[in-house]
Amino acid sequence: MADTASATVRSAITTVGVDDPTKRDLLKLVTGSAVVIGVGAIAWPFIDSMSPAKDVLALSSIEVDLAPIQEGQAITAVWRGKPIFLRNRSAQEIKEAEGTPLNQLIDPQSDADRVKPGKEKWLVVIGICTHLGCVPLGNKTSDPRGDFGGWFCPCHGSQYDTSGRVRHGPAPSNLGLPPYAFIGDTKIKIG
How far is CA 72 from CA 16, 67, 142, in A? Predict the structure, then answer.
């Protein structure tokens, strides 16, 4: 009787042992899950570090109040690390910019293409010379503005008019235009 009992126990151990397909599948599933969770825990900090930081996201757009800018005056704002020139153009500056024949321009572009309709007195340009990336002078009243009343880059002599169009010098193109929209009569959002 002892022999039959030990044979029955041996038979039960063999059938329920490690060779059991359901137990092996469960072990594979648990091990695979642990590996996936481990890889995810290791990879997440690297993936998260590729996202832009909160301070960068905050600078992706800025709002500028135009109310304090007097007619004929300009200010500089900073957007994405670039200087942005905002000028409240006088009626004379607008007239000169609109009256310039396109065949006199190095990079022909009308004044109407560089300002928002109905807001012609406000000019918003990226304040970086298109020649070698200098920052032109002309936002302060004491700055030289060149022969065309806009901006003057003293590094190589490029001159821009009151519409930010290159008129003289080695600069190949006009001052860039950032994406902007009026969110009120005297407030704009850049970016």
Answer: 91, 13, 13
R_g over Cα of the chain? 34
Q: How far apart are CA 153 and CA 158, in angstroms?
A: 5
The CA distances from residue 8 to 12, 17, 20, 22, 72, in Å, are 6, 14, 17, 22, 104
The single residue of 28, 119, 156, 187 carrying the catalytic annotation is: 156
Per domain, the residue ranges of the chain are: 2-49, 57-190
- DSSP for 87-127 reads EE--HHHHHHHHHS-GGG-SS---GGGTS-TT-TTEEEEE-
Segment among 8-22, 62-76, 145-159 with least mean pLDDT: 8-22
* CATH class, range 57-190: mainly beta
**Residue that the structure tokens 């004044």 belong to:** 111
Answer whether 0.70 is exceeded by the pTM: no
> Is 168 marked active-site?
no
Q: What's residue 72's pLDDT? A: 87
